[in-house]
Write a structure and sequence with these properties.
Helix content: 25-40%
Distance between the termini: 34 Å
Largest sheet: 9 strands, mixed
CATH topology of one domain: D-Amino Acid Oxidase, Chain A, domain 2
Number of strands: 21
Mean pLDDT: 94
CATH architecture of one domain: 2-Layer Sandwich
Number of helices: 13
Low-confidence stretches: none
Radius of gyration: 21 Å
Strand content: 15-25%
CATH class of one domain: Alpha Beta
Structural class: alpha/beta
């Protein structure tokens, strides 16, 4: 397959073997591009491994909302609460946090919501195309999701409901009896619940990434376990990609390096307002009951997902960058919240994990060609919805790289919106 703009064969490097990088590479490989994925870790070795596995095609609510500023002091006063900023990282994080708060103006919220809706809505359809019928049915469940709340109705909940209605999201309010028929083990502290019947989840994020790596090889692509050190533009066209043990040349480069994308792009003068939201999970092996459907506790900001390896509790936001050691107490706090949500839960061994969410202030990723560097593309910043948007983003990246008309308008995902 040739690039429709240049008429030449596309020799493409995709930096990052997470869900976005591998989905991009598979779509590119099937279109005929020669694709090499570069990552120091195996496929799914980063945030794509440990996420909640949710495929929330109806997710259209950005994280920053009006009224958040009033809640931040309360959140920060609890070191194990839903939001924490490591004291050693406050100065570095402050510019991003201020941008995040400004993104909570209602006009910006609506723009972000529109962009998220357009990106997420085709998610399951694109996973079916990406994986094929047999792998899709093996790896993905379309049983829906339940959102629950405790206590009084907060402004964020009201705004969320308004945005769902704005976009025609299908929901079903569950009364106490209906909720407990669906999830008998749920805590009586839950006061409200909404079913999202069109959402889904993967039963094993790691196996999903392994499957994409296999599909990439079938499409003629390859994965090299190398750490990218620097991207050097060549005179005329193309790029040299220097790794810990290689010096490679490509016509085009896609930076899908998740939380590390900012560091890779900075030497090229690309200003990307990306921050690392560190998330944690705890998995209870052999749980004492089978959860039929994922549950998102919106008041406590965590989710519970039934997976092949056990019941996974995932969530929280910790702003602490890429270099400060993990705080295992935050994973233990997620587990405690999970046990409170399901008081009868028992199980065997518990394992914990921390990963780095690549997040932009408005919750909307960048999917774009870099102005001034023809042939250099960015696909990162998906925050909490990388798994949801992975397949759609991969399709968009392949279309951008090959100069095709994109399946949706990519204007809302341009880097220029931050400058």
């Amino acid at each position: 397959m040739v690039d429709e703009r240049t008429g030449k064969e596309a020799d493409v490097a995709v930096i990052g073997a997470g869900i976005v990088g591998l989905a991009s590479a598979v779509f590119l490989g099937r279109a005929g591009a020669r694709v090499t994925v570069l990552d120091a870790l195996p496929p799914g070795g980063g945030a794509s491994f440990g996420n909640a596995g949710l495929l929330s095609i109806d997710a259209c609510v950005p994280v920053s909302l009006p009224g958040m500023l009033r809640q931040v002091p309360r959140w920060l006063s609890d070191p194990l609460g839903p939001l924490a900023v490591d004291p050693r990282y406050v100065v570095k994080a402050l510019p991003w946090l201020l941008r995040w708060l400004r993104a909570g103006r209602m006009d910006k919220v609506i723009a972000s919501s529109n962009a998220l809706r357009a990106l997420h809505k085709p998610g399951l359809e694109q996973y079916r195309e990406l994986l094929g019928p047999s792998h899709f049915h093996d790896l993905i469940r379309t049983t829906g999701q339940v959102h629950v709340w405790e206590g009084e109705i907060a402004s964020s909940e009201r705004i969320s409901r308004d945005l769902w209605a704005r976009h025609g999201v299908v929901t079903e309010t569950l009364g106490p009896n209906e909720l407990r028929q669906l999830i008998p083990e749920i805590s009586p502290a839950v006061s409200r619940a909404v079913l999202f019947p069109n959402n889904g989840h993967t039963v094993n994020p790691q196996r999903l990434l392994d499957t994409l790596a296999m599909l990439l090889r079938e499409a003629g692509g390859r994965v090299r376990h190398e750490r990218v050190m620097k991207i050097l533009p060549q005179e005329g066209a193309g790029f040299r990609v220097l790794t810990n043990n290689g010096d490679h040349r490509f016509a085009k480069v896609v930076v899908a390096g998740g939380a590390w994308s900012k560091r890779l792009l900075a030497p090229l003068g690309v200003r990307l307002p990306l921050e690392t939201e560190r998330g944690y999970h705890a998995i209870v092996r052999n749980p004492s009951f089978s959860l039929r459907i994922p549950v998102l506790h919106k008041t406590k900001a965590f989710g519970a997902t039934p997976m092949e390896g056990g019941l996974r509790f995932a969530g929280t936001v910790e702003i602490a960058g890429l270099d400060i050691p993990m705080n295992e107490r935050r994973a233990e706090a997620v587990l405690s919240q999970g046990r409170a949500l399901f008081p009868s839960l028992r199980g065997d061994e518990v394992s914990i994990w921390m990963g780095y969410r690549p997040s932009l202030p408005d919750s909307v990723p960048v999917i774009d060609e870099v102005v001034g560097w023809r042939g250099l593309f960015i696909a990162c910043g998906h925050g909490h919805t990388g798994m949801t948007a992975g397949a759609v983003t991969g399709r968009l990246v392949s279309e951008l790289v090959l100069g095709k008309t994109t399946m949706i308008d990519c204007t809302p995902y341009r880097l220029a919106r931050f400058h």
